[in-house]
């Protein structure tokens, strides 16, 4: 990736709805080469998708909970079964295999405590779950930030 690619990615992270013409103008490139570069970045998997960023509270998801999960078995089959189950849960918006006390850290969104209790019961019933520790987010300081791309 060169500096032009970095400029394209930086602008698209900020506004994925930029038209190709607007994008080309901002990076001082003609439309056709700009489109070729964007398509190449998509083909390479650098650009994964284009999405709308939603305000959670305005769509009724006022709670964010980070939970740490420990498994009672650390075989590949146990991890695979847990990960496949978690990937299918719509209220789990991010999931990471982590080091330290927990095996996984999940980000959960819910409408309220009653909704979260149902989600928690579902996660507790997943294969190989040993412990769950919940941390309730009080307020988001920074979320959905663009990736810090550096120019070469």
TrEMBL record:
Domain of life from the UniProt record: Bacteria
SMART domains the record matches: HTH_ASNC
InterPro entries from the UniProt entry: ArsR-like_HTH (IPR011991), AsnC-type_HTH_dom (IPR000485), Dimeric_a/b-barrel (IPR011008), Tscrpt_reg_AsnC-like (IPR019888), Tscrpt_reg_AsnC/Lrp_C (IPR019887), WH-like_DNA-bd_sf (IPR036388), WH_DNA-bd_sf (IPR036390)
Keywords, comma-separated and alphabetical: DNA-binding, Transcription, Transcription regulation
GO BP: any one term: regulation of DNA-templated transcription
GO CC annotation: cytosol
SUPFAM superfamilies registered for this protein in UniProt: Dimeric alpha+beta barrel, Winged helix' DNA-binding domain
Single GO MF descriptor: sequence-specific DNA binding
Residue ranges of domain HTH asnC-type in the record: 1-62
Listed Pfam families: AsnC_trans_reg, HTH_24
CDD domains: HTH_ARSR
PANTHER family with a match to the protein in the record: LEUCINE-RESPONSIVE REGULATORY PROTEIN, TRANSCRIPTIONAL REGULATOR AZLB
Name listed for the protein in its UniProt record: Lrp/AsnC family transcriptional regulator
